[in-house]
Amino acid sequence: xxxxxxxxxxxxxxxxxxxxxxxxxxxxxxxxxxxxxxxxxxxxxxxxxxxxxxxxxxxxxxxxxxxxxxxxxxxxxxxxxxxxxxxxxxxxxxxxxxxxxxxxxxxxxxxxxxxxxxxxxxxxxxxxxxxxxxxxxxxxxxxxxxxxxxxxxxxxxxxxxxxxxxxxxxxxxxxxxxxxxxxxxxxxxxxxxxxxxxxxxxxxxxxxxxxxxxxxxxxxxxxxxxxxxxxxxxxxxxxxxxxxxxxxxxxxxxxxxxxxxxxxxxxxxxxxxxxxxxxxxxxxxxxxxxxxxxxxxxxxxxxxxxxxxxxxxxxxxxxxxxxxxxxxxxxxxxxxxxxxxxxxxxxxxxxxxxxxxxxxxxxxxxxxxxxxxxxxxxxxxxxxxxxxxxxxxxxxxxxxxxxxxxxxxxxxxxxxxxxxxxxxxxxxxxxxxxxxxxxxxxxxxxxxxxxxxxxxxxxxxxxxxxxxxxxxxxxxxxxxxxxxxxxxxxxxxxxxxxxxxxxxxxxxxxxxxxxxxxxxxxxxxxxxxxxxxxxxxxxxxxxxxxxxxxxxxxxxxxxxxxxx
Amino acid sequence: xxxxxxxxxxxxxxxxxxxxxxxxxxxxxxxxxxxxxxxxxxxxxxxxxxxxxxxxxxxxxxxxxxxxxxxxxxxxxxxxxxxxxxxxxxxxxxxxxxxxxxxxxxxxxxxxxxxxxxxxxxxxxxxxxxxxxxxxxxxxxxxxxxxxxxxxxxxxxxxxxxxxxxxxxxxxxxxxxxxxxxxxxxxxxxxxxxxxxxxxxxxxxxxxxxxxxxxxxxxxxxxxxxxxxxxxxxxxxxxxxxxxxxxxxxxxxxxxxxxxxxxxxxxxxxxxxxxxxxxxxxxxxxxxxxxxxxxxxxxxxxxxxxxxxxxxxxxxxxxxxxxxxxxxxxxxxxxxxxxxxxxxxxxxxxxxxxxxxxxxxxxxxxxxxxxxxxxxxxxxxxxxxxxxxxxxxxxxxxxxxxxxxxxxxxxxxxxxxxxxxxxxxxxxxxxxxxxxxxxxxxxxxxxxxxxxxxxxxxxxxxxxxxxxxxxxxxxxxxxxxxxxxxxxxxxxxxxxxxxxxxxxxxxxxxxxxxxxxxxxxxxxxxxxxxxxxxxxxxxxxxxxxxxxxxxxxxxxxxxxxxxx
Lengths: 564, 564
Prior knowledge:
Oligomer: homodimer
Largest interface: A-B, 95 and 95 residues
Shape of chain A: globular
Helix content of chain A: 40-55%
């Protein structure tokens, strides 16, 4: 754990922003762990707005050094991983000043601790930022600097450098480095968010087939709680969300790789903005729905969801942090919205649109054609509904901005007083993207009809649950009527029962392991539920102990991976 | 902390369920702390469904003892407070068996530890249930019993007793004791939920006036984050919720006292069911909105909301547990729904309705009369909308149940497959009750027009935000049209700006205490934010450091308390 930032950020930053000479000097030292690095960017008073960072690096021509300073409390570097205990070097992001002029944010390699006895060097203060929600094991530190000197060669200079007389020279664009930020965000979805929701879902669904509560049918044994419609309504849409996001992340990663290739082979940055906008919005949507989903799973386990043994409290505190890190969600949604508004302007000028928003130029259907409840199991029908909603919200936001500007409101005010609507607009755009992608992935599974049937139900459930949760958006212009919404509600409830029934033959073979636990009652140590949950959290390997995984997750993940 | 259950539950239970002789014997011992008690009801596999408890107390005529047993893992007593470390006695809830017949759940006083050396007595196993989310300091234990004997006199026998030959005799009804469960739930709202959301709100709003982020107007200083519309949209509705629930809890407590008086003076239990149903639903609504609100406040503080120093993570983990304890929320909502369905049946038979649901017999307005956006600042107008929604959902649920039963579906199946809708129906009923009550409380403030103006805006904000969040319910039958919803959206955003502006003169005098903190930078110990948050969490006493409280909370709370 101690060297995660060292390998994942410190070294890649030097490789990305350093000259060949700098890479040759520092990377071998770091790879051999002769130096341990961290990455110091965020400040106590500055996160998402990088331009607002207050740490300074001022070039002193006489000594050929940079003087690094954190002049105010709000400029203290705050959060860097591995800083408080492990690191002896840091890549520090600071405002560069030469000849009294500020040239914006640049990166500097700063030694912060002695390589002999690990003592903190003069002019530097380092400490731990204190206890956090979850992440108890992570070493997050703060860093203060007063006239700390580093030689001129320590400014990472692949894209800009300072000459010995203090002249500032820019060489090419560093926009290329945005790709790594985007990659981090995309990997977050597949490596952190989806696994968190998957684990929570498996734990909660298994709990719900072994836990019994109250009589459902009078006089019979207490019912498995998964047989209560309210419990199905909590858990099964989470199962559907896992797959929606899983297929989305596959497509997003493919897009990422394609853009990366364009950049690497052709220095073509033309798709970077689109990728940034799409990944920002999807990161917000995915972290929001995975966090809410994990918490729903946790609470669906009743009192036992509060036991740390369930694994659920720590899953929540870990996953919810993703709503804030790697770009705070509201900021992310507004960045996507800015892109959408630019695309709308391009559309108005008759210019071609990037692929992910090309639907904006498609005709807007004005009403939903559903006549009976089974119509809502037609992917085309609900995909159209999501498309209509996204189109309408994007155009409404554009119209509102336009009319404010035309009435003389300043641009920044107009943007601010439209921002609640803009954030919602981005969600609608991302939501449509995910549904459309899910349908395409599902249709790609045609050669395996059994798998497709299961995935199809989850796809339907994802789409219909989303419409119900945002019913106002679909009803307000009459696209869906109240009567249709009743049909849709009924379809969604039918799906819950179908998915429960799908799983019933396997899941029901599997019951509360009374016997096993009761046989241990003689030397029971109060940790029965710990054992139960440990077993519930086991890596799925055996069909008999893992029906949900066996039925849904395993074949689908395998198949999906081989298909896409 | 160690004796909370001892005083709050153990002693009151003996007083409530014991005979005069039992009270005379046990209560003085407990009050002098010569015995320490706990209350053992919930089992590992049984929570809300009390009838499902599996612990047994079997009467042995030959020895005149009860034999207490936890025969299965799922019957182990689980969660009792003060049990794992402090208690030496427990009131144990168990199924009573005499002459081979089960008489249902009864309470028994069981000594569990030695009064000499605190060792656990023979046949008993006690332990800690392990780490939990939050509540680290609370001593929650488990209890297993194998043939533990207690004398016949230890069954609490105010309402039923066992004679020496094993005959079971019931004396009167113990329904009267439900009132204490209801009281607990009502006090939970005023003593736990509202204070939690109030604290979170004060912390987050203050943070938002000292924290700056990004330029709003190009070239100007970074903006206070409370000036972003998206931040206002997150926080100000929480402020409104505090007042909505505060006024509601005053009314609910008054109702509670009235019912209690009826029971005490006239043994009149006729309003108990209504009170139970209302308090159950409102507990669910309040715990849900306070938990969601605290988490919204926490996340609105960005990275710093993850610092334990902000006070927000622990506020969340404490408040969210209230969604599960004192009656799991879904179960609570369905209990309210059962009452609503009964009332609907009474209505159909022309019988009078309890006061809290009397609106069911009022005519249903079929459309909203709003023509311009200021119409949505008319309390009558939005109260009617909430009333219409509740009326419609209650009748729809009743119709669905009826038509299922008529088509031959069994009662329990019909109930289960309507339960998602029934839970939503209860929410709509409670939501209407809260809005109506808020309006009435606000109108009672007429003699103080300045206070009324502020409360009025918060009342409007609460009502309109709730309509937007549940827009589908209001649009689906055309009660509110899409055009009206646009006006309403616009009114709600206007309110955000007005409430922000209201507070601006005082709040803006108050800025990030750079100077104070920077003067301490010489001996800065990394806890600047801890100080900041400590100061933000201070008990409000001074107008200058506590503008939000001074402007809104203090006068309103004072005035409200004197008025109602």
